[in-house]
Amino acid sequence: MGLAFILLLLFGIGFVCGLRSMTAPAVVCWGAHLGWLQLAGSPSGFFAHPVSLIIFTIFAFGELVADKLPFIPRRTMLGPLLVRLVFGAVCGAALCVARELALPYGVLLGALGAVIGAYAGFHYRRLIPASSHSTQFFAALLEDVVAVGGGLLIVSRF
User: Fold this and answer.
1) Gyration radius of the chain over CA positions
2) Pick from 1, 27, 56, 91: most CB atoms within 10 A?
3) Where are the domains of the chain?
């Protein structure tokens, strides 16, 4: 696998985090659990722990449900954006650990991907008329599929 493709995957895990902040850590945990990512004994080893798998999976499912609720704050507000940035950086770093790459690649590309993913998801959802609740719901479901499916695809490639 070429370096350019690996860098794209690092950006991609951040992008997933920008779409759904808890999905990226959950799929990294699943990647470690399924043996796709070798993280045990590393600084990212907490992703390989069964407790992390359970917690991040519950949080990811909760976020998939909560995202459809009208009172959830915008992902581009400072708090939610910082959470995405941090988790994007941590998930990118974990993928670097699994590939024995320099951590700054994963930290920077994961964080950058998270910010771009957050704004891309925000603008994607703004394209749908707010009065069309069923269309908004299906747009959110499509975003869920992209985040979960894309995240699993990314970690399975490491």
Assistant:
1) 15
2) 91
3) 3-156
